[in-house]
Amino acid sequence: QKESSFLQSKLNSAQSILVLLSQDPVYDEVAAGLSLFLSLKKGSKQVSIVSPQEMTVEFSSLVAVDQIKTKIEGRNLLVSFDYVEESVEKVSYNIENGKFNLVIQSKEGFPPLAAENVQYSSHGGQADLVITIGIETVEKLGSFYKDNPALFAEGKVVAINLDGAASVSQKMAGLISQAGLPVDVDIATNLIRGIESATNGFSQISAGAEVFEAAAFCLRAGGKRGPTTTVVKTVSPKPSPDWLEPKIYKGNTQI
């Protein structure tokens, strides 16, 4: 309850929110992150969800997985190229026909900068609140921490990890319920599938009362459990009595 109250207070004072997945997220973590993303979006928050890793086919059953980006949108455009010491004479800019032109002039005796060697990226991402999912060490942030240090200032980050729970999605279901955040069929479906994945269909010994309480919350909200695989046993017909007797075939006529 204390954790949900803390999250609610942070959400109340934030307008722009970044939900951040780890560099190598598991299905349960992605399900939890997407559920929070959808819930905040449904609550009219300005929110985005990012992971350093491209989503693979294993996550395709989760609602809104296509909304996960691999880059934090920044306010600053970074222009990069290999630099030879003292090769640049000056850098200037001009505005012409509504275009901002950055001019990089090479010194005499040095080759001019080739356009194909220039790289563009954004950095300096901004958000009032960063919510990390399943990230316990800086290494799991990939290059995000190095490229956007201001995002991770003290007091701006809320970390949601297992912390003894059987599933991150189970924990997220509790937070959404206790904080009074919006929930719908898509959110509940992601959550219950994350719980199922983490607990191997509720069969693990770690699936205690809290897991089933979270699952009940999801089902009441209309959540759909993942598809089950049914093994269909086929029964071969009993062979005729003369099946094993030798037969001689000649053309189309049986002798």
What labels would you give this structure?
255 residues, alpha/beta, 4-stranded parallel β-sheet, 10 strands, 27% helix, disordered C terminus
Which secondary-structure class do the elements indicate? alpha/beta
Radius of gyration: 28 Å
Strand content range? 15-25%
- Low-confidence region ranges: 228-234, 247-255
How far apart lie the N and C ends? 84 Å
Strand count, sense and barrel status of the largest sheet are: 4 strands, parallel
| Major β-sheet strand ordering | 2-1-7-8
For the residues shown, what is the average pLDDT?
A: 84
What percentage of residues falls in helices of 4 or more residues? 25-40%
Tell me the total number of β-strands: 10
DSSP summary: helix tally: 6
Which descriptor suits the 3D outline?
elongated
What's the assembly state of these chains? single chain
Question: What's the helix-strand series?
Answer: HEHEEEEEEHEHHHEE
Plain-language structure description:
- With 255 residues, the chain is α/β, with parallel strands linked by helices.
- Helix content is 27%, strand content 22%.
- It is built from six helices and ten strands.
- It has helices at 2-12, 27-42, 144-147, 168-179, 185-198, 209-220, and strands spanning 16-21, 46-50, 74-80, 88-96, 99-106, 119-125, 129-133, 157-160, 249-250, 253-254.
- The strands form four sheets. A four-stranded parallel β-sheet has the order 2-1-7-8.
- Helix 2 (27-42) links the parallel strand 1 (16-21) and strand 2 (46-50).
- Helix 4 (168-179) packs across helix 6 (209-220).
- The radius of gyration is 28 Å and the shape is elongated.
